[in-house]
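> run fold GTP cyclohydrolase 1 type 2 homolog
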Amino acid sequence: MLIKEVIEHIEEFAPLNYAEDFDNVGLLVGDEETEVNGALITLDTLESVIDEAIAKNCNLIISFHPIIFAGLKKLNGKNYVERTVIKAIQNNIAIYAIHTALDNQYKGVNNMIAEKLELKNRKILIPQKGSIKKLTTFVPVENAEKVRNALFKAGAGSIGNYDNCSFNLKGSGSFRPNQDANPAIGEKGKIHFEEEMQLGITFPSHLESKILQALFSSHPYEEVAYEVITLENRHQHLGMGMIGELQEEISEEKFLESLKSVFNAEVVRHSALRGRPVKKIAVLGGSGSFAIENAKRAGADVYATADLKYHDFYKAEGKLVLADIGHYESEQFTKNLLYSFLSKKISNFALILGDTNTNPIKYI
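> ok
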């Protein structure tokens, strides 16, 4: 299997279209045409991880965090990023990073956190904008079912827990083929009126080329009239963070102890307790201070995330408890998520779960 074929499987799970604009995802080092000997799945890519890949005969590292985040202007080994990239190149090891593309997936990073906390009634905390598109096209009535079904098969028409969703409106379309046309219906040089179905259907933006291919291959017309627009609607199954409910109310102290235990955290930093039982929990793996207000508006009793600064804790304002469990701790199970998915898809080379601890923070 080639690296590009592995990438196809990864991006089936977490399309890069949904990564945040600031991020640097995809194949960062290496040639996608290279044949894969083995793949090491890890949270971070460091020199020690490259050493592990060498020892385990892996020439592909699938990493959650991108080792190259900002632009590199030189490669002379002056810092840990440059040294890691140089070592990877010298040993013909490719590096692929998924980061916020997986953060934004419903079954991604935050769902894994919610799973560990056994939260029910889960929803995306900050649904993503600009990820839903709408296709409008016009089809002869007798061909409408064929076109509609082709679009459904390509992945259009799913809204939350519903699929095969479309809007259909009958009307009359007109056209006049010129002398260079090859009309399926009507005659050259004559205006033709045809009873048509206006078909409206939504689809996730990463499927646009597949949806249009299905439209063109199933539509009878030589020239297909259609338009695609991006909707302002938020995608309820894509976005940052997650909110859900505990099976039953528990005390704040008991929940914080549970957080510490489940995520093997040396310490949990938190804002002032409110003296109330908690049930509604918001989570966001990694740096999550930007979502404090979202957690408040969602009615969370506790917001568990990482990398909160001193002044961030003031933002609790007695409306919820902010809990910082640590960046590494909040995302540590992500590599298991990737391994679980890929092991079901790939069987013709070794997939290895990396065991290098890349947490840079230590406690005394």
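The chain has a mean pLDDT of 96.
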